[in-house]
Design brief:
The complex is a heterodimer of chains A (about 290) and B (about 325). Chain A has about 290 residues and is mainly α. Chain A has helices at about 1-30, 35-55, 60-80, 90-110, 135-160, 160-170, 175-180, 185-210, 215-230, 235-255, 260-275; strands at about 130, 135. Chain A has a two-stranded antiparallel sheet with strand order 1-2. Chain B is built from 14 helices and four strands. The longest helix of chain B has 27 residues, at about 200-225. Chain B has helices at about 1-20, 25-50, 60-75, 80-105, 105-125, 130, 155-175, 180-190, 190-195, 200-225, 235-250, 255-270, 280-290, 300-310; strands at about 140, 145, 150, 230. The chains are: A mainly alpha (about 290), B mainly alpha (about 325).
Chain lengths: ~290, ~325
Amino acid sequence: MLIQVLVSGVAIGCIYALIALALVLVFKATDVVNFAQGEMAMVSAFAGLSLLTAGKLPLLAVLLLAFPIGALLGALTERIAIRPLLGAPPLNALIVTIGLWMIFHYGAGWIWGFDAFTFPSLLPQAPIEIAGALVSPSNLAIAGVSVLVLVGLYVFLEHTRQGTAMRAASMNPQAARLMGVSVGRVSLLSWAIAGGIGAVAGVLIAPLTFIDVNMMFLVLLKALAGAVLGGFTSLPGAVLGGVLVGVVESLTSVYVSSAFDDAIAFVVIVAVLMVRPEGLLGKPSVKKV
Amino acid sequence: MSVYRLLQTLAAVVAIIALPWLGGSYVDFILCTIAAYFIVALALNILVAQAGQVSIGHAAFWALGAYGSAILVTKVGFPFLLGVIAGGVIAGLFGLLVAIPALRVQGHYLAIATLAFALVIEQVLHEWEGLTGGRTGMFVPRPSFFGAELLADQYYYYVIVAVGALFAWAAHNLKRFPSGRALMALRLSPTAAQCCGISRSRSLITAFVLSAFLTGISGALYAHLVGYLSVSTFTLTASLSFLTMIVIGGLGRLSGAVLGAAFLALAPELMRDMGEAQMVVYGVILVVVMLTLPGGLASLPERVASLFARPQPRPVPAGTPAAGKEA
C-alpha cells in the first residue's frame, strides 16, 4: 500500500516538478514569477486536444508536438508582454502575469468552453504488478517522460552554446552582456523552454484529471510551493521540491485527511522554510546584523 | 500652490459626500464596495509599499474580519459596531501569527507562507459548517446603531467612508511616527536600518498586525453590507485582486488606493455586457496598464503632463522601492 501511495505521489510530483522547473527557469532569466505558467500549459494541452479531435492527428504525434506548441506560446508571451517590462519593478511583472493568467484562463474557456473533456492516454491506467506492488503504467510513463525532459534540459544547459549563455546570464547579466550574450535572446529562450516543459506537463496530467480550464490551478500552486521549497533559484531544487510536494500530498491524503490535503502540503512547506529560509537547495542570502 | 491644493481637497470632499445622491440604490451599493476595498488598499499598502513585503493571502484577513463580526453579531449578540471592531481585532491577532514566519523568511518565501495561511483559513471556513455555514454560507444582519437599523446603503456609505478616512489619516501619519519611519528605513536598506538599532522583527510584526487589522475591519463592514457570506468570496482570486488593485491604482499613494479600489469594483460592472470576453478584457487591461503606466493609474496626470512638457529626465515611478517621496 505504502509503495503504491509513494509511486502515485512521485508521479504527480513529477508534474509539479516540471512546472516548478519552468517557473525557476523563467525566474532565473527574467526575475519574473510567472503566475500564468500553469494556464499556458493548459492552453497548450487544449491545443493538443484540438489537433487530436479536429486535426485527426495520431496521439503520439500530438504528444511530440506538445513541446513546440508550448514553446511557441511561451516565446510569443515573452515578446508581447514581458520584454517591454525589462527593468520594471518585480511587483509590476507579477501583476502582468496575473493579467496573463486571466487572458489564458478565460480565453481558453471562450474558445473551448468550460466543460471537462477526456484526453486519451497512450498507456493503460489499470495497475499492473511489478515486484509485488501495483503500479499504473501511465504513472511510470509520467516519471519516464519527466526524466527524459530533465536529461534534455541538462544536456542543453551544460553542453550547448545557448545553454551556457543562459547560465551565464542568470549568474551575472551585466558580465554576460559584456561578453556578448544577448540578454533579450536568453529571456526569449527561457520563456520558450519553460512554455514547452509546461506543455509536456499539461499533456501528461490531462489523461489523469480530464482537461478543462481549471486543470492547472492547483498544479501551479503546488509547483510554486515545490519551487520555493527547492530554493527558487535552483533547477535541481525545483525538481526535488516538486516531487516532495507530490509525495507529501499523496501521503497526507491517504493517511491523514483528504479534506485538508491541499492545505497540509503548504503547511509542511512553511514549516520547512521556518527551519531553512533559503529552501532546500537555495543559497543562503540572509545577512546577519 | 497651497490654495490650489486646498481647492482640490475641497472638491474631492464635496464629490465624496455628494456621490450617493447621484444614483439609485445599486450605485450606492457599488460605492460602499469601493469604500470597503479602499480600506483594504490602505492596509495592503502599509505592508507592500511601506514595509516592502508581499502578501498573496490578504483575502484571509478579510474573511476573518467578515466571519468574525458576522458570527459575533448573530450568535453571541454583539452590537454591530463592537462586532466590526472585534472582527478587526481577530484579523489582527492572526496577522501576528503570519508575522512569525515573516521574521524568518522573505520575498517569494513569505508570499508562499501568506498563500499557505490563506488556503488553510479558506479550508477551515469551508469545513467548519456549524460556525460558518460551510458550503451554504451564512446570513449577516444589516448594520445597526444603538438598536436602530441602518437600512439604506446610501447612509452606510458614509459610515464606511468615515472609517476609511480615519484610517487614511492614520496610515498617512504612520510615516511620521518612529514605527513608520523604521519601516521605511528597513525597506530602503535592511542592513543600514538594523545597524541603527531598528528592530526588524518588531517593525514587521507592527506592519502585519496593522495591515491585518485594517483588512479585518474592511471585511466586517463588507459582511454587513452584502448581508450574505460564502467561502467563494474569499479565495486566492480575491487575494490576487487586492494585490492587483494597489499596483494598478499606484503603489503607496492615497489617490492610487482610491483609483485601484474604484477599478476593482467598477471594472466588472462596466464590462458586464461583454459576456464571455469580460475577464479576458480585464486581463488585457491589467497587462496594458502595467506596460504603459508602470506607476499605476495615479501616475496618469504626470504621464500626460510629461508628454507636453519639455524633455527632461523621467521621474522615478511611484512603484519603485527607492522612490522616497517622503524624503
